[in-house]
């Protein structure tokens, strides 16, 4: 079933003639006008034939959900077979249409139905707010099988029941219903809100970053494993390794104590099993020696068990424990898996902080909010949107605190306010990147956990010598490593649409400087120059292939090489190097020591690793055909 909803000032429709022999009989062909309504264009599909009742119920619920969010009291059901190229039989389509009409009327909506099986003329006026045009695809095929075999946490089930109020909070403290907010100067925020509201996570076309990750020979799909598990070529492994080292160093400097814990846990362990049901994610379950285990989806399990056996004083708080989880596992739906954006096996920097009380938890929350902003700046991702999510109770008790976070980002933020706490956290925030397909992905996030200290028996001794349960902050200050790579590649694509050269941050570029020799005659000079760069921890390679210099430069640009230097007779005589800067497109004549200073200044606070490939391009294999 496919539906397209238009929140309308009015719709006028008039049946003209029958389109099919089985068109329903109507008393009159007069024009009908309905004002201030939600118009639902719908097309039943072949796949609905097997699960008609489920299709009716789910479609009715989707229509009601949208009607509530746009505050529509009148609904117009408009059969529109042109939404699909695989229509169901007319009999099934009519049954679904009339059943939805009856169910919606039972729920006290004023319902109108355009005649079924007719060619109709219509005029419609769309209200034009962010929720005025929405689409849904309802697919019930295989639902019974999924329900029988998939283990779904109680939190995921609760998430389906929780009621969310979507609002926009501005730095001056004004809270506005999202559907009433003017997004005129905040188009990216509008895209983010629509994505969050629609809850449609799947993609129908290949995102640009997937092309980049393959053509740049960074990452690729692996057919020999479960979908959502990727393989990394040398350049991709270098970038991933540098990101892992960077965020680990950053968190340790902040005070995180690095540990390592298992990737697999006993499914029947009382505290772990209880926690599984409070985490909104699907798990990998494995069987070994007649015992059931699950693969971790974060570092929570190992760190919580470790802390439960640790002697902790109030003087130790806030206590920060960190692990780079390579890997964490979540059994994401296959239709949502795409490139580096959403995976089943991923690398998550994961820190948990024990705090004495809500006052110290809020202070630590704010400090880590700032740390997350620093991380995105390091990745040169500055155009992100903020979501802060909490219950109505938390908002009522902590308004000034939430407003202070909006002031830190200094622009409007999306608020999701829940009517009850469906999981263990309240509040949480994420910084979200909105990509070229208007899909949003959470990068850094921090949550305040109110349950797991007691669940796992984590306690500290307070000043009064009494044992107490702390609050726990869950934090990933960069977000998943793979998702950082996705965001940088998608940002590069968006830059290219603005006329800029797509680039990676200089500290992450696999080759930072490429030397292109005019002929073999200048290879000794190129090798000497390369050695000096390498002494100064700059990744350099040499294009020694038998190609024209213009072809070498074009290939270097295709690989997004930040600095390209031609080595020929002029360079040999003058000791000056003509440097082509990819980021600006400019060419500058510089001494080698000036080039070294330029690169070192831009990369001095970041980790370094050696070039992961042979220095000479003629010695390199090709990984992607």
Provide keyphrases for this structure.
single chain; 625 residues; alpha+beta; D-tyrosyl-trna(Tyr) Deacylase, Chain: A; BirA Bifunctional Protein, domain 2; Rossmann fold; 10-stranded mixed beta sheet; 18 helices; 28 strands; 33% helix; globular
Topology:
Layout: E1 2-18, E2 32-43, H1 52-70, E3 74-79, H2 90-106, E4 110-113, E5 118-126, E6 133-137, H3 143-149, H4 154-161, E7 164-169, E8 175-177, H5 187-198, H6 208-215, E9 219-221, E10 230-232, H7 234-254, E11 257-258, E12 264-266, H8 270-276, E13 285-288, E14 291-295, H9 300-308, E15 319-329, E16 345-355, H10 358-378, E17 385-391, H11 392-397, H12 399-409, E18 413-418, E19 425-434, E20 440-449, H13 452-456, E21 460-461, E22 467-468, E23 471-476, H14 481-497, E24 513-517, H15 523-535, E25 540-543, H16 549-558, E26 563-567, H17 569-574, E27 577-581, E28 587-590, H18 592-603
Parallel strand pairs: 2-3, 3-4, 11-15, 17-18, 24-25, 24-26
Antiparallel strand pairs: 1-2, 1-5, 1-6, 7-8, 7-18, 9-10, 12-14, 13-14, 15-16, 16-23, 17-19, 19-20, 20-23, 21-22, 26-27, 27-28
Helix pairs in contact: 1-2, 6-14, 7-14, 10-12
